[in-house]
Specification:
Number of helices: 7
Radius of gyration: 18 Å
Largest sheet: 3 strands, antiparallel
Distance between the termini: 34 Å
Structural class: alpha+beta
Number of strands: 5
Order of helices and strands: HHEHHEHHHEEE
Strand content: 5-15%
Amino acid sequence: MTAKDCIVGRRSIRKFKADAVSHELLSEIVETASYSPSWKHTQITRYIAVEGALKEKIARECTTMYPPNGDIIAAAPVLMAVTVIKNRSGYERDGSFSTPRGDGWQMYDAGIASQSLCLAAYEKGLGSVILGLFDQSAAEALLQLPEDREQRTYSLLEHVFSIFNNRHPAGYCGRSLSVGDVVQLEGKHYLCASLGFTE
């Protein structure tokens, strides 16, 4: 299937089969989408695969502004929440905006990544639809991760990623971190993957 086949053939699907989508297939789709271009290669987009009770809760509690979206989410086997790391895309290393668009570039990057996710899913025979009408605050609250050591380590790794992609240390002339790179931290090794870092 060519890129043109994917772009022309893909449609927004609102009714889904009940078949589960394997986590291996989801990882492959997300890895493909992770190669989307982004502002200064900041790669701010993160995906959260949501299934089961949490997906049902999001369908019920986060779609009151447009209830048909709740029906779509409830019927889908998996919900992919597209999130961004704020204050990177469109910013200079000193924290100032690079252009008059301010932080608007993060939505631009998320849009590119969302299309890549949908096209990668289509190539693998999966339907998708992008839903924009939802209660963002409620969804963000429901998707909070616990603040245990793993999460703090992940946050530290995200900080390392930010430094080596956005705010290079003085004198650093190496390349930016990319998918497949390994970071050693506190005696452990972490793989920079399309979904973040894995030990």
